[in-house]
Prior knowledge:
Strand 3, helix 4 and strand 4 form a beta-alpha-beta unit. The chain has one domain (3-244): Creatininase (Rossmann fold). Helices cover 33% and strands 8% of the residues. It has helices at 8-13, 38-50, 83-99, 115-128, 166-175, 221-244; strands at residues 20-24, 59-60, 104-109, 136-141. Strands 2-1-3-4 form a four-stranded parallel β-sheet. The chain is globular and about 55 Å long.
Amino acid sequence: MQLADLTWPRVKALAPHTPIVFPVAALEQHGHHLPLFTDSLILGEIVHRAEPALRDRIVFAPLQWLGNSDHHLDFPGTLSAPPRAYLDVLNGMIDNAVRHGFRRIVFINGHGGNDVPGRQAVFEARQRHRDRNDLLLLFATYWNLAKLPQEKHADFHQHEMGHACEWETSMILRLAPHLVGDLKDVPTTRARTAFENAGLGWVTQDFVRDGHIGNAASATADKGETLFSSFAGGLTRFLREVVDWDGRSWS
């Protein structure tokens, strides 16, 4: 079910155990070769592929395209909700959902910069609603919900998500190839080489000047289909776990 298509009486009549899913992404720079809307385009497609198997059991809110992208603000076109403002937005969405009777509230994330404030938001909300023992508050990033794509496609060079990288570029090549720029001269870049076991305060230009991190030149549309299939499958399995949760156990 799409929240935007429902009337308020239909929302009120939903069973209280019906999960509500908030897809959250970003509008930010993705190097010289990918569009600003990359994260939102990709997450929208993954949710679109997962939805049919869950259509009558889950409410999907519209995709929230404004994310926490302050670390990309040196690149023109990036729009960002600063970290504390973003925390307030996410906490407000949680409290809205709780007020309207939802007990299973899930954020599906498509942008790495949303991860820290997203996890903080569900932690804060649980403390705020600590008298409730019937709430399930989750924040999950889509690429952490599936097996590594190398298991299905041996040609992958990357083993983790980058930024405007092999993975994201492959998915945009599959979804909207007309939005992908010339890849032949895009160099391979790596984000960190030091202090990798510590949290590091950073902005994108601390590591790269042109805005991408990873091996974009090795991207293909075929790899993109493998990634979409894997990530949509992982999301579907995860959301089925949310639907099937017994409301009590944590193991």
